[in-house]
Amino acid sequence: MFKKILIANRGEIACRIMRSATRLGIKTVAVHSEADRNARHVEMADEAVLIGPAPSRESYLSMDRIIAACKATGAEAVHPGYGFLSENAAFARRVEGEHVVFIGPKHDAIAAMGDKIASKKLAAGAGVNTIPGVNEPIADVSAAARIAAAIGYPVMIKASAGGGGMGLRVAHNDTEAREFFTACQNEARNAFGDERVFIERYLENSRHIEIQVLGDAHGNLVYLWERECSIQRRHQKLVEEAPSPFLDEATRRAMGEQAIALARAVGYQSAGTVEFVVGRDQSFYFLEMNTRLQVEHTVTEMITGLDLVELMIRVAAGEKLPLRQQDIRRDGWAIECRINAEDPFRGFLPSTGRLVHLRAPATRDGEVRVDTGVAEGDEVSVHYDSMIAKLIAHGHDRGEAIARMRTALDTFVIRGVASNVPFQAALMQHPQFASGDYSTDFVAQHFPQGFRAEDAAPRDALLFARMAALVHHRRTVRRSAAAADYVVVMDGIHHDVCLTEEISARTSWVPGQPLLVTTISGSPVCMQVDVIDRRYQLSHGGTRVDALVLEPRAAGLIELMPHKAPPDLSGFLLAPMPGLLTEVAVKAGQQVKAGDRLAVIEAMKMENVLTARQDGEVAEQLATPGDSLSVDQPILSFRKA
Q: pTM for the complete prediction?
């Protein structure tokens, strides 16, 4: 077994790998950028090495610096985690050439599966079902539009080296095919250094289901059941669960066997994932193979009881797999929600800044797990992905897992940056998700205008009014057992609340606590509480309510107060997120139509295109490409048509 390994990654996955390594008695080495000098993974490691400035290409993507860190620390092996260099065949080959063990598959397997065009051809040769399409690099925009039309819309435009939702778009017409081809090329070039793009048929109302495989150097291969990953936004996974609520046993076995056939065809060693798209009739087709540990590996661990990181390390050290296919159990149900720093109420725009307050749900072995790479006070940077944590719930069955996830989300407190917790909570409340009858189009179908407050599960107005009155009473009267009458104003509607001594005495909440826990009608209730001036913001089950609590006499006078109209900002294009302005597509004096491309902002490794909301004329350009923008910073001003 290794004595010391280096983790060539950051954040949550670096911390996750360190936990398993430490349990095995292995010393760990962290690498970090200047921006991550005080990061959690640096603190957890036995040693840490600075490898460059904040931009990934100068630090976490620098092969030379990571290999130099191995030599300097005497690390015997490198675990790449996911993202960054984890599926870079050249990096794996260089590590092997330095007589350091790469904790992952051999470089030739990475190369074979990392090229999506080559991998589809190899899969077909191994007897794996593949999607119709053109498995050759597309030359230019015109060729992309011509090929897409020949295949038949909708089509998926994919970067050959893409991953994590980058370099991937679904086009429904020629205009989108041309625009998305360019966007996929740009994202792939910037993220992977490979701009090759291909096109294949997009199957609507399908499911995204993947098979976890594990192999060793002795020819042993097993599959660890499947994960359902169909809840996605912009082709990035939001929720994963194991097993799938859709597959029957025959399809499950057939997919597992095809995944093993593909892995065997490339002599696969280590953990890997074969991804499939599955039709309504349970027909399935190969998408790609991820030659690394997946973000969502946690749900597989929860239902099998296995530690995938430990098994990867043992396989890399030359050990045989300690189990056979018939030994792999499937116990209960597990669900993972990715908790990201993004604002669901503003089109899921990235949110950066300091985590002023971070309180994860209470963890319980076998029930609730939280994997994170940040702590309270840490900075969410524009340079890296937006993940704050992975929240995993396990239950005897799917219903129990969902119930535990709902409670955990209600108690996940994040302040300082916006998070997608309200949206995840709304998903867990959605009846179609609860039924298990959903597809990869679920978010687009049910949230076509993005996520709005009214999209959450119907709220119990009286419950929120009672909680608002209770919070106000505790803040102002400070006597837990006193009764009082209040009027709670929510969305312009007045609710009369009689706060009895019994209701007031049920909670130990005191001002300053972010969670209000009490019982109403015999059922436990947990709400998050924020005090904003004289108003209260309450969050529960994906619903967020702003409430004003008044004495009855004051409520009668509130309607007489003058209303100040907000400033008119329709004459400006404002940066909806912090990021790097990479393109301004118009000039002063130019006429624009609603929907025209105006500018492009790169944030958290994604390219975001800003378009015109209405017709008008560009009056002035207020920012230039290369500028680092803050939220709501003006980019353009307009003269209205």
A: 0.83
